[in-house]
Amino acid sequence: MSTGSSTAQERRIHNRIGIAREGFPFIGIGSALTLLFFFLGLVSLTIVAGALTLFVLYFFRDPDRKVEVQEKDVLTPADGRVVGVWNLESSENALGTRAVKVSVFMSLFDVHVNRIPVGGRISRISYRPGAFFAANIDKASEKNEQNAVFLNTRDEGRIVFVQVAGLIARRIACWVREGDEVQAGQRFGLIRFGSRVDVYLPEGSRVVVQPGHNVKAGKTILGCLP
Predict the structure, then answer these.
(1) The domain containing residue 40 runs over which residues?
(2) What one-character DSSP code corresponds to residue 223?
(3) Helix 43-59 with 24-39: angle, nearest 10 deg
(4) How far apart are the first and last CA of the chain?
(5) Which of the listed residues 30, 59, 88 is the one where a domain comes to its end?
(6) In the annotation, is 195 catalytic?
(7) Could you tell me if 15 and 190 are in contact, meaning their C-beta atoms sit under 8 angstroms apart?
(8) 38 and 122: one domain?
(9) Which of 21, 24, 176, 211 measures 20 to 30 Å from 100, CA to CA?
(10) In a domain? residue 66
(11) What is the pLDDT of residues 11-58, one digit of tens each?
(12) Exposed (0-12), middle (13-18) or buried (19+): which is 210, by Cβ within 10 Å?
């Protein structure tokens, strides 16, 4: 990775401006159209373009969050609503062993910046193109475009968290690389316009959230490692 690319990734991970940089092109286009319609005297179009620009600003918000975790705690990697907790056999999940899967659905109104669930080292990243089913249904985990991040924890365990594109999402951004040492709660990526994140924890992990719970990335404790 070039120095320029590395610097850009670091700026995203350690963002201090409150807006994810992936939103800049959309914000710029929306602002330009709003000004154009205003100077042309097109009141209705000015209002519509201005409202859409404000929504884009809201969608790409990236609040700074203070992270407080114990050694075994696992943070939720995404804002949103827990849509499922499952016990899986080894053949049914990315870990390759018996595991617990927790899925978090992000609506259009949730913060879409994703955060590292637990500190450790990124051992592998696997991107897979796919379909774009609604992210709040089970089929999305199997069929949709997705990016799986494999992480070795500091106590020699392993977890996997997967960014899954949604119905209208067409871009998954991942700002970490294989070999990176990461901290719990650190920003690692973003998915545009409605999506989900699946987390696979090793057998014996204790999950403390339930379907229907609202969670916040880097703040809500998802569970504890064995």
Answers:
(1) 3-59
(2) E
(3) 160
(4) 35
(5) 59
(6) yes
(7) no
(8) no
(9) 176
(10) no
(11) 888 888 899 998 899 999 999 999 999 999 999 999 999 999 999 999
(12) exposed
Residues facing residue 115 across a β-bridge: 187
The two three-digit tokens of residue 96, written as one number: 């390759």
Q: Is 211 within the bounds of a domain?
A: yes
Q: Count up the domains in the chain and report the number.
A: 2
pTM of the shown model: 0.86
Mean confidence (pLDDT) of the chain: 87
Q: Are residues 83 and 140 in the same domain?
A: yes
Q: Are 207 and 77 in contact (CB under 8 A)?
A: no
**d(Cα 30, Cα 101) in Å, to the nearest integer?**
38
What SS3 class is residue 12?
helix
99 and 208 fall within a common domain: yes
Question: What long-range pairs does 16-21 form, CB within 8 A, spacing at least 24?
Answer: 16/64, 17/62, 18/61, 18/62, 18/63, 18/64, 19/57, 19/60, 19/61, 19/62, 20/60, 20/61, 20/62, 20/112, 20/113, 20/190
CATH for 209:
2.70.70
- Catalytic option among 90, 126, 141, 195: 195
Q: Give the total residue count for the chain.
A: 226
From CA 184, how far away is CA 115, in angstroms rounded? Answer: 8
| pLDDT tens, residue by residue, 197-214 | 999 999 899 999 999 999
Rounded CA gap, 9 and 76, in Å?
22
Q: What is the full DSSP assignment across 67-112?
A: ----TTEEE-SSSEEEEEEEEE-GGGSTTSSSEEEEEEEE-TTS--
